[in-house]
Amino acid sequence: xxxxxxxxxxxxxxxxxxxxxxxxxxxxxxxxxxxxxxxxxxxxxxxxxxxxxxxxxxxxxxxxxxxxxxxxxxxxxxxxxxxxxxxxxxxxxxxxxxxxxxxxxxxxxxxxxxxxxxxxxxxxxxxxxxx
Length: 131
Description:
5-stranded antiparallel sheet, 2 helices, single chain, 8% helix, 3-stranded antiparallel sheet
């Protein structure tokens, strides 16, 4: 579980798809990075990423980590955004039997979890099939 200050620092990434773009090789990353893992440049800029993409692969989580029991089963997948950036994300509002690679998806704002110890409700963008 992330600490409250760490969660608040990361809100731009959680609430909007803010990633980083390397000025050296042009690759984009989510979440934002300080150093490009391809060309090792430290010259990266923050950018807002597209909110639509295609589901490349997915899996169904039936045995969740601690704190996520309430949400099972749930889908986690790799979404390739319109600009080519790949995002590991939860896929919501879907019939799992109809979900397949190639499904067009769009970002949607959802609750991630509640932390009773700190009294914080955490939200983030997840993806759902495009209607």
